[in-house]
Amino acid sequence: MDSVYPASEPARAQIDALEGPAMLEFGTPWCGYCRAAQRSIAEAIAAHPEVRHIKIEDGKGRALGRSFRVKLWPTLIFLRQGKEIARLVRPVDSIPIRQALEALSAASA
Fold it and tell me: Using CA atoms, how far apart are residues 63 and 59, in angstroms rounded to an integer?
């Protein structure tokens, strides 16, 4: 699991071209909801090493978040072959994250 938000975001074309299962995590390091969700995200993603986890710092002037219509943080977007198959907004525990990851992994197997 990525633990920090990188300074730059990937281009939308890079995300659309991803192979296999991936989970995008949109948020910010100062967001209380984002910080509160980190433990649940870490617990859920640990059981799915086959899923690429990409943290993306979102906010004003960040095109990638706007292209996915992200409005609240954290927003988790689950992708298969670069296509969105599920989305969670402000998950409060690891259960829905685990369920989305299991569905993503099962479909990718």
Answer: 9
